[in-house]
Amino acid sequence: MTFQRGSVQALYAGCSGQVLLAHAPREVVDEVLAGPIRPLTARTPDRAALRRRLTLIRERGYAISKGEINADAVGVAVPVFRRRQCVCVVSIAGAAVTLAGDRLREALRAVTSSAADLGRILDATSVDTAWSPSPLS
Description:
By secondary structure, this protein is of the alpha+beta class. The chain has helices spanning 15-22, 26-34, 47-60, 101-124, and strands spanning 63-66, 73-82, 85-95.
């Protein structure tokens, strides 16, 4: 399983995109749900399943996907919040045969801890934008 830098992935499939979508403004969610949802595998959610999953992600605070983008892959993702707004996701993905059971639970603990740490660091910064001028320029 590989992704090329700069590639665009569908928000409706896979744990990372779904976490971002679950915390996106209502108009973004509505636009995605109104647009085409092309199955990438047999496990890519349809509109109704996606709508239910977004609610579940907001309730649980994480997403797990199994075979939604790549039939043999599993992923777990957690939102990172800055000032109560989801700004990014921390995720781990791997082969379904190795990322299961205790390993999947450990992956969830790791991304949850990392997302919380990153959120605390971001909350402590005074910069209001994601990109700021380099101090070397």
